[in-house]
Amino acid sequence: MATTKPKSAPPKMSIQPLKKFRPDPHNANRHTPRGHALMEDSVRTVGFGDAMVASSDGQILSGGQRLETVASIGMDEAIVVETDGTRPVIHVRKDLKARSAMAKRLGILANRVGEVNLSWDPDVLRQLAAEGLDLGQYWTPDELAALLGTDEEATGEGAGTGEVGEVKYELVVECGNEARQQALLERLEREGYPCRVLML
After folding, report:
1. Domains, the chain, ranges and CATH?
2. Residue-wise pLDDT tens digits, 59-73
3. At residue 127, what are phi and psi to the nearest 5 degrees?
């Protein structure tokens, strides 16, 4: 006899104050100034597409930068949909028609903001790994090695012992101008390389 899958709870929708929600203090994404500016421009010009995700006690799990952005431009309420996570949530923009200029712009911004605004925090990732999260599910060993690395000068490991520290392989690239430098920085950070910006 076939078993029937239990139905998920019906969603609940309400309008609630943004102050009920708080960003994650241990967000592994540090974000970038350029990403923040692009997100604010997106909110002001095309409105909202992607939804934030919060825990049952109000902590933002995905979309912390969006929460900060909407608060900074004076918004104080949000449409809140409560679900059990077993079905996808589709945000229907009744004001948009497919292939309209604004729909095209929203589609580009939804992806470009996430791309520009990603800056992994190695310290938070190390903490999550120490707490038992298997980062190997999301990065290859080489990617993790490049992303997390070790900085013996900062941690003091091996100091005063006479031991030879870990060999580091670093690269200085002459970019020619600030725009090319920024583009290369974003690409390398997306690929998991910890970078420092230098102006010589």
Report:
1. 12-116 (3.90.1530), 122-158+166-190 (no CATH)
2. 999 999 999 999 999
3. -65, -45
